Amino acid sequence: MPNLKLNIIANYAGSIWAALMGVAFVPLYIKYMGIESYGLVGFFTTLVSLFSILDMGLSVTLNREMARRSVLDGQAQATRDLLRTLELIYWSVAILIGVTVTLLSYPIARYWLNTQQLSMSDVQQAVMIMGLVVIIRWPFGLYRGGLMGLQKQVFVNGVNVLTGTLRGLGAVLVLWLVSPTIQAFFCWQMIVSGLETLIMAYFLWRALPPTGKRPEFRWSVLAETWGFTTQMMGISLLIVIFNQSDKILLSKLLPLDMFGYYMLAWTIAVSVFKFVEPIFSAAFPRLTQLVAAQNTLELTQLYHKLCQLMAVIVLPFSSALAVFSYEVLLVWTGNSDIAQPTHVVLSILTVGMACNAMTIMPYGLQLACGWMTLTLWTRIVSVVALIPLMIWMAFHYGMIGGAIVWALFQITNLFIYANIMHQRILKGQFRRWYRYDVAQPLIAAVTLVLAGKMALTETFPIAWTIMSLGLITCLSLFFAAIAAPEIRHSLINLLRKTFPRLSLKYQRLSG
Fold it and tell me: For residues 421-456, b (16+ Cβ closer than 10 Å) or e, as one string?
């Protein structure tokens, strides 16, 4: 558990720093390169997101296998062979993607991207460099997955902080001192990407136990994990389709301004997952190890503690965001004309995001057990059944209708999906999960937030509103922690260790 706590802290630190580096230098990028060049940066980000489908579940597979095999005997050579096999496949995919982007650089510059100030040759050169960046950067995800599976998460986040700083601050220096062009920007990204991929690859291989034999590409090793990998590939594809379906459909069905409001609400609501990823990344390898070791007792205890930790962190923030959606939008944009048509959609999407977040740990347990059938069929049903309903709702009720369908799917998952999972894995634990891991922290969080909403009946200056929202969220978090038994027990133990004299006096008074 000490390693798990340290990994969660490291993941949060790395996630917060990455988010900061992602936004801190954007005004300077635009200042030196211009808004059109920054548009190419956004185009590159979109390309990388779309190409994530071609990961084919390999990075998650390596993460799981590294964690599982680390507690099994006689797996050293097989683990090295697995890494070499997946490594060669991953590099092949990276080269294929990079060459494709490079070859399509002219039609992309000529027919897809509409520019007014940049010349077509500049755009084409930038797209060609994007292809090279993809080749060098793509395998980073595989090596990262392997190191995360070995629970080297403090090291991974340290590298992320270093390279994230170099990527952001270094790009500003290059634009300032060398050349304020989009080509110089992507050349620097290529250098930093090469550095981080090299570091991750080197230390992953160093972390594996030596065997005296060279690792080999072996189809047999790949065949052992192929069932899990193919299911992950299908799930990843369906997740991308479903998560993007509302935006694709609404961009066609809604007026452009209404779609803009929807995307604004989505951008804020998805921030809920900034609280989810660090816990999941730290927990998944440990869950996999306990499954492999068949340690059901410790697995059950850890699972409930992680679910309650997720609830305590996610639900107070989500409750405050859903209830105070108008105030949040007004503070962020400073424009009531934007906040008014957007806040209802933000509330609906936030509720859906919170429900989705609470099913992440059950999903992680399924991954650890290698049982992906439930998730696969759930995603198939969502794509087949809910997309037509989303079209109908969006056509009749606009962006609110689309948001309702997406949120209803996540709410349904919270009851049906989690119930089925607990009937197969950790049998008899669903009531405990629903009552102690979800319901009690949720009731405590929502009660405090609603009480704060009733107390703030008047309009206050922005500074006062920010302080009030912060105080309400913190109080909500505190009461949610008290309502979660495992977290409450951990806090009491922490207080006893921190203040031993106070603990002794409490025991005497209790006696």
Answer: bbeebbeebbeebbebbbebbbebbbebbeebeeeb
Using an 8 Å Cβ cutoff, are 135 and 274 in contact? no
| Burial track 235-268 (b if 16+ CB lie within 10 A, e otherwise) | bbbbeeebeebbeebbeebbeeebbebbebbbeb
Spatial separation of the C-alpha atoms in residues 431 and 503, rounded to whole Å: 33
Question: CA-CA distance, 138 to 57, in Å (whole number)?
Answer: 14
C-alpha to C-alpha distance for 475 and 482, rounded to whole angstroms: 11
Q: Are 228 and 309 in contact (CB under 8 A)?
A: no
Backbone angles phi, psi at 468, to 5 degrees: -65, -45
The C-alpha atoms of residue 476 and residue 354 are separated, in whole angstroms, by 15
Q: Whole-angstrom Cα distance, residue 191 to residue 344?
A: 44
Global confidence as pTM: 0.69
Amino acid of residue 473: T
Q: Helices 296-323 & 336-358, crossing angle to 10 degrees?
A: 170
Query: Side chain identity at 325, as an amino acid letter?
Result: S
- Cα–Cα distance measured from residue 409 to residue 378, given in angstroms and rounded to the nearest whole number: 10
| Burial class of residue 371 in the structure, from the number of CB atoms within 10 Å of its CB (0-12 exposed, 13-18 middle, 19+ buried) | middle
Q: Hey, how many other C-beta atoms are within 10 angstroms of the C-beta on 461? A: 8
- Position 176, amino acid: W
Q: How many CA atoms lie within 13 A of 396 on its CB side?
A: 8
Task: Dump pLDDT digits (tens) for 96-132.
Answer: 888 888 888 888 888 776 667 778 888 888 888 888 8
- What mean pLDDT comes out for the span 20-29? 71
Q: What is the pLDDT of residue 71?
A: 67
Report the first-to-last Cα separation within the chain, whole angstroms.
31
Q: Which residue in 151, 127, 437 sits closest to 310, CA to CA?
A: 437
